[in-house]
Automatic annotation (TrEMBL):
Keywords linked to the UniProt accession: Coiled coil
The protein's name: STXB6 protein
V-SNARE coiled-coil homology domain mapped to chain residues: 101-158
PANTHER family the UniProt entry points to: EXOCYST COMPLEX COMPONENT 1 ISOFORM X1 (PTHR16092:SF14), SEC3/SYNTAXIN-RELATED (PTHR16092)
Organism from which the protein derives: Calonectris borealis
Record lineage: Eukaryota, Metazoa, Chordata, Craniata, Vertebrata
Gene Ontology process terms (BP): exocytosis; Golgi to plasma membrane transport
Gene3D superfamilies: 1.20.5.110, 2.30.29.90
UniProt key word Coiled coil: yes
GO cellular component terms attached to this protein's record: exocyst; plasma membrane
Origin superkingdom: Eukaryota
Pfam short name (any one): Synaptobrevin
A single GO molecular function term of this UniProt record: phosphatidylinositol-4,5-bisphosphate binding
């Protein structure tokens, strides 16, 4: 997770999902600065296993799929480049496509930006509709009050007659 504190602080959190559960449990967490090495284990084989070496710990990981591992590596590499000024971790035994471009990152960022823009537009449109509905409700309320007053006067005069 990345916070918006200055300077930015990034951490790596390992979670586990137990069989039959929809929630995740936090297992361990490290600061990004503690990461020393990312080991993809075998660059010639698509596998979900990989190792992370931290300052004082070695941790074995298994992604849900080899594709998710690749995406995680790309995001991790990009995050390290962006937030670490020195002591960047070494990426070894990783497929070249991981280090090569940020196409997944850019498409993910574009998707998020697009979703935010659509949500913002939908909220604005909804706000406008609610504003018009409130105006119409006020008009109807005033009309109903005038009708009730007129009906009361008519009834009053009928009772007098």
């Amino acid at each position: 997770s990345v916070t918006n504190k200055k300077p930015a602080q990034a951490s790596i959190t390992k979670v586990k999902q137990f069989e039959g559960s929809t929630s995740f449990v936090r297992r361990t967490q490290w600061m990004l600065e503690q990461l020393r090495q990312v080991n993809g284990i075998d660059p010639n084989r698509d596998s979900p296993e990989f190792d992370l070496l931290f300052e004082n710990a070695f941790d074995q990981w298994v992604a849900s799929t080899a594709s998710e591992k690749c995406t995680f590596f790309q995001v991790l590499h990009h995050t390290c480049q962006r937030y670490l000024t020195d002591k960047k971790p070494e990426f070894i035994n990783c497929q070249s496509k991981i280090m090569g471009g940020n196409s997944i990152l850019h498409s993910a960022a574009d998707s998020v930006t697009s979703a935010v823009q659509k949500a913002s537009q939908a909220l604005n449109e909804r706000g406008e509709r609610l504003g018009r509905a409130e105006e119409k409700t006020e008009e109807l309320k005033n009309s109903a009050q005038q009708f009730a007053e007129t009906a009361h006067k008519v009834r009053f005069w009928q009772d007098k007659a």
